[in-house]
Amino acid sequence: MASSVLPVLALLVPAGVLLLVRGVRLYRYELGERSFSVKLFGKFEVVSIRFEDILEAKVARWWEVTSAGWSPLLLKDRFALEMVVIKRKDGLYRHVVVTPDNPREFAALITVRKKALERVKALRVEAA
Q: Global pTM?
């Protein structure tokens, strides 16, 4: 039985590595008006985080993430030197790690949208 599994693994492991290296993406990261979501194969929502539940989004190097001392939810689908760490206010996983194509721009967009929602919320409180 074990000997019949080895040839299959010998084919699947390099194929999986090739898919990741060649850029086939498992996850698609979407920034909506009020939330950030991760979709598996671009169709199935894995996680959705409202911007108001995010404390910060920052760019980190892979060694900073692996040596941080906390267990993040890794939603990365490729090897990258830089990734985005999203720190949440609460939840099972307080840190979510994603690997968008442009980590610096992605983290900046999350921060801008979070601040825009905070301004809108403040204006509504003032108007009431």
A: 0.74
